[in-house]
Write a structure and sequence with these properties.
Distance between the termini: 38 Å
Number of strands: 30
CATH topology of the largest domain: TIM Barrel
Oligomer: single chain
Strand order of the largest sheet: 3-4-5-14-11-10-7-8
Helix content: 10-25%
Number of helices: 11
């Protein structure tokens, strides 16, 4: 298989709406131009591409995307692609060109869902497969080629495998999301690298890329291995202060470092500093009780969205991002939250200086109240198409600006866990990151529960978290601490079988990622405690190995849509994803 630079493709529009979409050949002297845009290319025929973009006109230009197109030559069939998802919950795993499809092409998919799971919320072309930030291609039994962007802080990088006139093409796309370039403005774009390896070396290629991307972005990978408790997967929105305190009392017998209160305490989505009627104490008193018990207080917030009836939204309507018609931009929907519009939430405008000041204040106030561990959820909201106070900012810059404000307010010593976040945007800002969908007290999606057409594999299910934990194992201690999501050890009030609960626990262990239990501790017995002790012992071994340069390895990452083999630090785990049965061995 060869990857041959062919041409440049641009999707843009001049101020006033005139389209500038078009193509330009690569090669010869000078910089290729499409309309008013000039692209400087360095190394498009080598293993490293450096490029930049300039607006040579006297009018502003809104740039949707710029792509270098590589022809895929002599690949053979089947041509497989490692599809890396956009954000924490997005499906990650192997797909086959000409067989699998992009979920955006399902007829009933909606724009809000597409915006949650892709940099570009528009549907793809028929037959196209896309991967965000990084991909690996392998044709037939030939060598594997990794193609990846060095970062995603200034713009997204999307890899699109498409049918071309002469065969498959890989579009290496810098996605700017209609960011406006001023007349004469020049922008550097993130570099693209190509690395080659043998047919079975996809895990090594991905681990090497993650190490380089982490080093380039100043990844925060020094935090201790995390063991703790989280309220969500037993109590969900129904958590109360009484239930929290009852579990805190029982936690004295458990080896938890972190004790984290999840969704359900807040007076409204967006009003994070005040509690609801289920929590008669204020947040500082709750944090003080957790700290007095010898645990690190942790708190969940969704800082970039606000309920329509929240104080933030009603008192500061100018802080909201907008649609073209001037109405507030929706950033998420969850009927459980209410808020005045059946659970629809508005997106804060993270290009507005006052919003950034607000986010910084929220983070600082929560840390001062005693929470040095913050989980930030649903943080894709600033990436959506809309009208923003500063139209020059890309979706990546909007998300990152919000995280930077949180980090400024929280300080360098606070552990920040990203969730529901476009992963490439936050390297160097988060200490941990969710790398899969939510688990659930069941292994697979149950009949009648598929509520996201085309995106079933992103919905809460332990199987879906399992898939991404294996497929993103290479990111641990290179980009952040991987958070595979919570353990569920209970055998009552659950539809997760004992075998599936053990399989998930063993997966978390061999991944080396964070290990947080999410059960009513009153339901757990001595067997549950022994299983957690096993998870923590193995997890610490794997995490220590990852620190020294040996991350977990998913050996069948390109072999099937849901892989089943994970190895690390002398441990080998094999799982049947259909039955949830597992086999765990320590090599001698």
């Amino acid at each position: 298989m060869q990857l041959v630079a062919d041409r440049l493709e641009v999707d843009a529009s001049v101020h006033g709406g005139r389209s500038v979409a078009g193509a330009a050949a690569i090669g010869g002297s000078g910089a290729p131009t499409v309309g008013p845009l000039e692209v400087h290319l360095d190394g498009p025929g080598s293993s490293s591409l450096r490029w930049s973009l300039a607006n040579r006109s006297d009018a502003p230009v809104a740039v949707r995307s710029v792509a270098v197109v590589l022809r895929v030559v002599d690949a053979g069939e089947p041509l497989r692609l490692f599809r890396h998802g956009y954000q924490s919950w997005s499906t990650t795993g192997a797909v086959t060109f000409g067989v699998d499809t992009d979920p955006s092409l399902v007829p009933d998919s909606i724009e809000l869902t597409r915006g949650v799971h892709h940099a570009d919320q528009r549907a793809t072309r028929p037959g196209e497969l896309r991967s965000e930030w990084v991909t690996v291609l392998r044709g037939g039994d030939g060598d594997a080629a990794l193609v990846g962007f060095e970062a995603g802080t200034e713009h997204d990088g999307t890899l699109r495998l498409r049918h071309g006139a002469d065969g498959p093409e890989l579009w290496c796309e810098a996605f700017l999301g209609d960011a406006v370039l001023a007349p004469g403005e020049h922008r550097l774009l993130h570099g693209v690298e190509i690395e080659w390896g043998g047919p079975d070396q996809a895990p090594e290629l991905l681990a090497g890329w993650a190490a380089r991307a982490g080093a380039f972005g100043g990844a925060r990978v020094g935090a201790p291995y995390q063991v703790g408790w989280c309220s969500w997967y037993h109590y969900f929105h129904d958590i109360t202060e009484d239930a929290l305190r009852a579990n805190l009392a029982r936690a004295a017998a458990w080896p938890f470092d972190v004790f984290q209160l999840d969704d359900g305490f807040q007076s409204a989505i967006g009003d994070w500093l005040t509690t609801n009627d289920k929590f008669p104490s204020e947040l500082d008193a709750i944090a003080a009780s957790i700290a007095a018990a010898g645990r690190t207080p942790g708190l969940w917030i969704a800082p970039f969205i606000v309920a329509p009836d929240s104080r933030v939204a009603t008192e500061h309507p100018d802080w909201l991002a907008r649609y073209a018609d001037g109405s507030p931009l929706f950033g998420m929907v969850n009927p459980e939250w209410g808020g005045g519009l059946d659970g629809l939430q508005y997106a804060l405008d993270t290009t507005h200086p006052a919003v950034l000041t607000h986010l910084e204040h929220v983070a600082r106030t929560l840390v001062d109240a005693g929470f040095p561990y913050l989980k930030l959820d649903f943080t894709f909201a600033p990436s959506f198409d809309g009208v923003w106070a500063d139209p020059s900012r890309t979706p990546a810059q909007r998300v990152r600006a919000g995280y930077e404000a949180i980090r400024r307010g929280a300080g360098d010593d606070t552990f920040i866990l990203g969730c529901g976040v476009p992963l490439s945007h936050v390297v160097g800002l988060v200490d941990g990151n969710r790398i899969g969908p939510d688990v659930a007290p069941s292994w697979a999606i149950e009949a009648g529960y598929d509520f996201l057409p085309g995106y079933t594999d992103c919905q809460p299910a332990t199987l879906h978290a399992f898939r991404n934990t294996l497929a993103r194992a290479h990111q641990h201690r290179r980009l952040w601490l991987n958070d595979p999501d919570c353990l569920m050890l209970r055998q009552a009030e659950t539809r997760l079988s004992p075998a599936a609960a053990r399989t998930w626990a063993e997966t978390v262990a061999v991944s080396g990622g964070m290990a947080l239990v999410s059960d009513d501790l009153a339901l757990l017995d001595d067997d549950a405690r022994r299983l957690l002790d096993e998870v923590v012992a193995i997890g610490r071994e794997v995490d220590a190995a990852a620190r020294t340069g040996a991350p977990p390895r998913c050996g069948d990452i390109l072999e099937r849509p849901i892989p089943g083999d994970l190895s690390a630090a002398g441990w080998d785990l094999t799982v049947d994803p259909v039955t949830a049965e597992s086999s765990l061995f320590r090599r001698t």
